[in-house]
Amino acid sequence: MDLLLERLVSGLTNGSVYALLALALVVVFRGSGTINFAQGELALFTTFVAWWLTTLGSPVWLAVLASIALGFVLGAGIERLLVRPVQRKNDTAVLIVALGLFTGLNALDALLFGTETKVMPSPFPNGLDDYVSLGGARLYGDALGVWVVLVVLVGLVSLLFRRTRVGLHMRAVADNPESAALAGVPTSRVLALGWGLSGAIGGLAGVLVTPLAPQQLSLTTMFTVFIAASAAALFGGLDSLGGAIVGGLVIGVLEALVTGYVPALGGAMQQTTVLVVIVLILLVRPTGLFGSRRLERV
């Protein structure tokens, strides 16, 4: 029983990591109707910058704030300078831009920070004695911190979309930008804001995720996390904040249980197995568990 509890705690921790990045994907999708395939590498770049600041003597939390701010600026800048010009001509071109950013940002990380693995300090207590007991399992301070941040972040983003004029504008632009513009919505600012918020959430996710990653901070740190986060967003529904959280936690727990109880499907096959399950679910419900169905007039 203690072993099962440990695996569940580990799965929920990994799932919280996936949920954070999935939340960034949902925010940009709800704000612009676009999937940002460069989200993981954008988060990785801001995390490298945060690590660099800590090497200069900057407090960890200041480096975290810098990562969030940089993520916002980069996200908004990417939308304004790269995404918007091509999206006006061809929606498919946005995918090419995102894939170009994916490889470009990774190459930039290697050029600026090198290929050696770095150690990113955690903003939360993460010593061997910094844990709370849950039954027979241990929940360490950095994992607990990720859980708390996830809950707070979900609450804030939910309030943004449901209780503010800006959130209403973002939903309107994602649903129909032409009609929103005719209604007086400042679509340009709304689109930039959506991408900026997504970049900020990614910047926060990166600095929280990296201390928990087995390989710490390297050029491949965010790749597997992004794949799982994308699956979580699709599983829960690309326009559902709650779906991103549920999807991330489900995938995290599923991975932990598969690795623990089906060794043949663990290791290299672990992620493939989970993704196969997600594909099967999407075949039954293409919009995800909590995604809304769009009706089109013909």
UniProtKB/TrEMBL annotation:
UniProt xrefs under InterPro entries: ABC_transp_permease (IPR001851), BCAA_transport_permease (IPR052157)
Q: Name one GO biological process term.
A: amino acid transport
**Coiled-coil blocks:** none
Q: Which UniProt keywords apply?
A: Amino-acid transport, Cell membrane, Membrane, Transmembrane, Transmembrane helix, Transport
Which Gene Ontology CC terms are recorded?
plasma membrane
Task: Return one GO MF term.
Answer: transmembrane transporter activity
Which superkingdom does the taxonomy of this entry point to? Bacteria
State the organism named in the record.
Klenkia brasiliensis
Q: How does it sit in the membrane?
A: Multi-pass membrane protein
What name does this protein carry?
Answer: Amino acid/amide ABC transporter membrane protein 1, HAAT family (TC 3.A.1.4.-)
Q: Where are the transmembrane segments?
A: 12-29, 60-82, 94-114, 144-161, 190-213, 219-238, 245-262, 268-284
Q: Which family does it belong to?
A: Belongs to the binding-protein-dependent transport system permease family. LivHM subfamily.
Q: Where in the cell is it found?
A: Cell membrane
